[in-house]
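Continuing from the previous page of notes. For each protein in this section, the sequence appears first, followed by its structure tokens. Read the first protein now.
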Amino acid sequence: MSKSFLLYTILIIALLTLIASFSGAMTFLGDAEAYPVITYRGEVVNLFGVGVYKHMGEVMAHQGAAQDLVTLFVALPLLLVAAFKYDRASVKPSVFLTGVVAYIAVTYTLYLFMATYNQLFVVYAMLAGASVNLLFYLLYGLFTMQVDRAIPKKHLASSGGFTLMGIATLMGLLWLSVIVPSIMDPAVTPEPLDHYTTLVVQGADLAFFLPWVFLSGYKAVKMDTKGYLFMNVSMVFVSLLMLALSSKIIVAMVMGESGVPAIIILPLFMALALLHVLWFMVSPLKNHG
């Protein structure tokens, strides 16, 4: 893939992201009262009434809008900057762009399967398809990099791998704390389930994303150069994801939901990942040979 084709692909992704995130963020401007419905579990749930998040749980609709703001004003500008700075022969721009694309890919893949059907369905499908395929291409580029001489040994010995393994483990335990009570007692309904049929985010995290994050940290701990690269991709991804999740928890708390312990854990993870990203970006690395 030539750089010009890659830039055109990213510009298309950026345009679609702009449409999706702006439309979702407009939820905050909607003046719609929630309406109650009785789920097939016999519980009363308040659903949102207008916009692209119509028929979604009231709290989840506002949480989606909060993440849209993060995507619109943080992730989207970073995607454009990273795209124009991208150089396949340079380690840092490649890692940073891959991490930002990973955030876009994960976000809109989850939207595609989690959001109630709306006018943006085709946009979500195009975003998920384009960003996931671009992510595979960028990851392959990192995997084939010859970086043994580009990364000093002192960088390979950093504590970032342990940090990433800890983040993945604690996030997994956080999700299991939501899920396990309902396994032990079928009468208990997991709080995030609302009127949906399953826990899409928690399932995807436990099945795919958290193992990927954990293993990239593990490979970095083993002082593997490819593991070091993927660890830093994960750090960029985690920084953005934790910012988005923190914004969702804040909105939920404003609406009267409990945010403990997530409101403590998630910003802490974001800070740790962000500090590592900043350290990586200012560290002296050579282009791969």
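Done with the first. The second protein uses the same format. Note its length before scrolling.
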Amino acid sequence: MMSFNHHNRWIMTPRANGAARLRLFCLPHAGGGASTYHTWAGLLPPDVEVCAVQLPGRETRISEPPMTDLPSLVEALAGALLPCLDRPFALFGHSMGALLGFELARVLEAQGLRAERLFVSAHRAPHLPDRDEPISTLPEPDFLNEIRRLNGTPPEVLADDELRALVLPVLRADFAMIEAYTYREGEPLSSPITALGGLADGSVTREELEAWGAHTRAGFVVRMFPGDHFYIQSARPLLMQIIARELLLG
């Protein structure tokens, strides 16, 4: 079972480790919560403390309204993370979380706090135009079809009237936030970037992942895995091996 980090409600730690060499902050996909990363602590080296970010509006924070402005969310998150940045840290973000991780890395770097590595998963580079039509305002049947296509929300959740009523507003808010995102020109990060994707992900191409290389002046690599947009579930053991190796390289 995950517990709240002693610092604040934004961070949950599957396995607290005060002696950890490095903290890995994991940011969720649209509609996702900290539980996405609850198994990671047991699959990564013991000197890496997994810190799963819990955004407002989901799981343990379901009573709070979800945030719909990405810059405001990033600023709030950066402030919440500051007490935890007393040792080396890295950032991992999947899908929507990749955008959050990138903008978070920019905000922190402007404050003199450099991530050891930024992992961006299943999302095109931020300067590229969105190829997908907006879905946040679709009628519920059409919106549900799009959510099912992405394969990230358990079918049993979408089939249950009560659970669906809880998750759909958060999903709509998250997609509205992504769709409203506007890339701002800026200096490349001094953190190395690893871009990750699923070989069968129809929503993000390898070329769109390779374009992340423009956003770092340090090392850059693309890693592809068997699976679709949510390869992080189906290819988890291999993903953990890659993350562990990249963190070791620094």
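What the second structure shows: The first strand starts at residue 3 and ends at 4. Confidence is low (pLDDT under 50) at residues 1-7. We return to this in next week's lecture.
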